[in-house]
Design goal:
- The protein is α+β, with helices and mostly antiparallel strands and 164 residues long.
- The chain has 4 helices and 9 strands.
- The strands form 2 sheets. Strands 5, 6, 7, 8 and 9 form a 5-stranded antiparallel β-sheet that branches. The chain has a 4-stranded antiparallel β-sheet with strand order 2-3-1-4.
- Strand 6 and strand 7 form a beta hairpin.
- Catalyzes the conversion of 2 pyruvate molecules into acetolactate in the first common step of the biosynthetic pathway of the branched-amino acids such as leucine, isoleucine, and valine.
Length: 164
């Protein structure tokens, strides 16, 4: 099964996200990633969904979502035709003797250290899923204390936009 990324434009009002996630849950579709936020239009919210499934399952998801009254438009974003990013904040153990190693890794992955104390560092990294997964795997050797990731956000390449 492959991951499919959907850009869903919806009316910006309470309960829409809950109705979308509820519909997918009832259809036994797992949401791998979800991110929602304002668009250039104040009354429109863009929800980026990552769902796993074959072409038939994806087609069903799109048909079901299209039936929801607050859904304006749905577009599948192909990985090779879009720019995708996630953000992660990672709290890692940072013993004094190993801090320079961690700083070097942060530099190699083009991440940022955003907080430091006697025992830990918080690192911010922006990138695609593979980059963040690779960085997390390297940091496992140092002891990840806490990790939080955003859902994927994506825009199609080129001049065309997902519009109403």
């Amino acid at each position: 099964m492959k991951k499919n990324t959907l850009a869903v434009l919806v009316v910006n009002k309470p309960g829409v996200l809950a109705r979308i996630s509820g519909l997918l849950s009832r259809r036994v579709v797992n949401i791998e990633s979800i991110a929602a936020g304002y668009t250039e239009e104040p009354d429109v919210t863009r929800i980026t969904l990552d769902v796993k499934g074959d072409e038939q399952a994806l087609e069903q998801v799109i048909k079901q979502l299209s039936k929801l009254i607050d859904v304006i438009k749905i577009v599948e974003l192909k990985t090779e035709e879009s720019v995708e990013r996630e953000l992660a904040l990672i709290k890692v153990k940072a013993e004094t003797s190993r801090r320079s190693e961690i700083v070097n890794l942060v530099s190699v992955f083009r991440a940022n250290i955003i907080d430091v104390n006697k025992e830990t560092m918080i690192i911010e990294i922006l990138g695609d899923e593979k980059k963040i997964n690779a960085f997390c795997a390297v940091l496992d050797d140092y002891g990840v204390v806490e990790l939080v990731r955003t859902g994927k956000i994506a825009l199609s390449r080129g001049p065309l936009a997902v519009k109403q």
